[in-house]
Amino acid sequence: MADKKKMSVAEILAAARQQDSGEGDATPSPAEAAPAAEEVVESAASAESPPAEEPAPATTMKPGERPSVKDILAMARSGESGAATKPAAPKAKAAAEKPAAAAKPKAPAAKKPAAKKEVAERKTTASILAAARRTSKAGPMSKAEAAKQPAAKPKAPPKPKRPVPPMPEKPAYAIPVEPPEVDQSRRTAMKAAGVTAIAAAALFGSALRLGFTSLATTLSLWGLATARFMFPNILTEPPSRFKVGFPDSFSPGVVETKFKAQFGVWVVNGSYRGEQQLYALSTVCTHLGCTPNWLEAEQKFKCPCHGSGFYKDGINFEGPAPRPLERYAIRIADDGQVEIDKSRRFQEEMGQWSDPASFVSV
Amino acid sequence: MDPNLLTHWQNISGFLGFYYIALALMNGIAAFVVWRRSHATVGPVLLLLLSLVYVGVLAPLAFSADATWMPRMPSWFTQLTNEILGGSWGAVIYTVGSIVLLGGLFVARKFFVRPDVAWILLNASLLALGLSFSDPNFYAIAAKPDNVPIVGLIFLLGFFTWLATSRAVENDARALEGRPPLEKENDEKILVWPDLVYTELICMILLTALLLFWAIGLDAPLEEPASSVKTPNPSKAPWYFLGLQEMLVYFDPWMAGVVLPSLIVVGLMAIPYLDFNPKGNGYYTIEDRKFSYLMYQFGFLVLWITLIVLGTFLRGPNWNIFAVYEYWDPHKVEALNNIDLSNMFWEQLMGVSLPKAPNEAGFFTQLGFILYREWLGIAVTLLYFIMLPPLMAATVFRGFFVKMGFMRFMVMSNLILFMALLPIKMVLRWTVNLKYIIAIPEYFLNL
């Protein structure tokens, strides 16, 4: 028997088919058939419905593995007398119930005797389940089935009631006073209170809601505070518009560096494309934003960070700076002084240096 | 005799004397260890002699700070170094020289990892460092508190590279003989507690003590309060970012500050997915993983460490190149007139001015003119990134392509091409003064 245990599904099927089809043949000895049947049901029970490797002949059995239930039961019944199969048979029967129940076969004839016997023999889990299933069908019931169902148990007889003493008369102070006439405004106020209460219930109805509400409130307050932070009451930076003196104080060819520390500007009286101009250059390197130095001896602006160099007119010529220094807006104010406006920038590569606001002709 | 030089010698004579005594101690201990290990006589005697020279000759001379006897680099050497490294070709010679040096060390690694050779090299470099300290310009750079870690880094890196290479050379020799690698042979397991934990504890205590003494001995390199209009000249990044700063000299901030650093990180993360070589797991080797080894050492030693050293020792005021013994003159003039590829093509080759859209033109006209102006650079870049990977797959990296498959090979080849961008750009900057291959400053797009 031990070596039979490892039979493959195909072999089992073949064995089952052989039994099935061989009507005229001598039925295989019960001792041999029982383990085979056991294998079949075991595999069926464990793997719900193992894939049918070979479609079984439709005439003999319905699904490849299961139809052997009848046969198994028959075998078991026949083997009951045989002492050799005794241990195997009940197991096979009991297990056979499972696929039978799963497939819901309409074979009460096959089911009943098996059930009868198992009561007599031994109670396995499967048999208990089968017994449970027999009394009441699981799942939805049809009307006919419902009608067959035994009526609900009559209720236990009601307990005798205890005599309750009558309520005492209500004292005068407990009688509610009729409320005075409510005026319309009070009513709307109460209505508003009611709405508020409903809103509060909607917002704070549960701990989760309370948490999210407070989170949202905190975040929005924080956002408002941040927005307010962006507009400080006092700005300590120098004004973007400032005067640097009269035009004749800037001699030709000189880079005025004295406004660098306070305003970040070089005021240059130099020539750009053959034109003598007074212009204000930004002191921010166009490569990575360091502050270049004006080297009087070399007549160039030189950045100490990555070595970018700019001519006196702000055009980049060495190092990695990709574009010229930027110009600020410059003009002669009404009082005749030179006024620089740092809020407007002019970029050479965009062709903005031809804008008359970017220079003062001298 | 220059009085400043004499003052400098008097200032550092104590430090230098103890420096030479430390070298003598180092060699004496080495002599003892060698004698204990091998009971040979020649090696320990030579080491002891060297030790005696340090302690008997160099240390007293250094303590004396005498104008004639102070141990110093010969003047012909310092002048030659200044000529070579301080000239306009300094960066080229430095970079090419370090690549050649590292390549030579790699090719002749079987010779250089021998303990005696390595010990002689260590002594020579330490002695050169000591002699160079006598030069005030060198001392000003090398002994600056910012730069002390970098001097330490050079020696530490040399030691670890030697350690790994010597084990790899030995393992490769063993592989030739058919023996298992060192690490497989002595893979006897030891316990975390107490072996590893005790070692870690001792290392922790020693390092903490070192840091304490370092912090007491060398002041923190704090500078004047920051000012938006005054930039220190030269403005140097922290030493570990000097490679990035050097990269910024050759690229637009977007490329060198964002794209390439991200690619370094992404590329390092991609290595495990690109590596198809199962060898070299758990032991040092070079022969089994030659490509990976060379790629990594090129990226790390050449493109990172030598750039840090370049930024530390050779970059001076206005970010000009200064030799190590050269005075940092802020008015040193370096003729650099960098031009873009479009300038070269239109102005120098075609003899016309750059194509420029009329001022009132619309956006698309402007864009068209810009693309027309930069067509050569765009074409070159596209060819570089699109044509080269298939070419590599068909020629030198044929085996890689077969083993890695299309996607992985494309990722790897593009990472290599991005890595190669830096040396290519450096060479182009130094040789033909090329600023940008594609220069579209209108939209902040430069390569």
List the helices and strands and how they pair.
The complex is a heterodimer of chains A (362) and B (447).
Chain A: H1 9-21, H2 30-46, H3 68-79, H4 88-103, H5 108-121, H6 125-135, H7 143-148, H8 184-204, H9 207-229, E1 241-245, E2 255-256, H10 260-263, E3 265-272, E4 275-282, E5 293-295, E6 300-302, E7 309-310, E8 316-318, E9 327-332, E10 338-346, E11 360-361
Antiparallel strand pairs in A: 1-10, 2-3, 3-4, 4-9, 4-11, 5-6, 6-7, 7-8, 9-10
Chain B: H1 3-38, H2 42-64, H3 75-86, H4 90-107, H5 109-112, H6 115-132, H7 136-142, H8 148-177, H9 182-185, H10 192-217, H11 242-250, H12 253-274, H13 290-314, H14 341-349, H15 363-373, H16 375-394, H17 398-404, H18 406-432, E1 439-440, E2 445-446
Antiparallel strand pairs in B: 1-2
Give structural notes.
The complex is a heterodimer of chains A (362) and B (447). Chain A is an alpha+beta fold and 362 residues long. Among the domains of chain A are: 4-135, no CATH class; 241-361, Rieske [2Fe-2S] iron-sulphur domain (Rieske Iron-sulfur Protein), CATH 2.102.10. Chain A has helices at 9-21, 30-46, 68-79, 88-103, 108-121, 125-135, 143-148, 184-204, 207-229, 260-263, and strands at residues 241-245, 255-256, 265-272, 275-282, 293-295, 300-302, 309-310, 316-318, 327-332, 338-346, 360-361. In chain A, strands 1, 2, 3, 4, 9, 10 and 11 form a 7-stranded antiparallel β-sheet that branches. Chain A starts with 8 loop residues before the first helix and ends with a strand. Chain B is mainly α and 447 residues long. Chain B has 3 domains: 1-71; 74-220 and 285-331, no CATH class; 249-282 and 336-447, no CATH class. Chain B has helices spanning 3-38, 42-64, 75-86, 90-107, 109-112, 115-132, 136-142, 148-177, 182-185, 192-217, 242-250, 253-274, 290-314, 341-349, 363-373, 375-394, 398-404, 406-432, and strands at residues 439-440, 445-446. A two-stranded antiparallel sheet of chain B has the order 1-2. The two termini of chain B are 51 Å apart. The interface between A and B is medium-sized, with 31 and 36 residues.
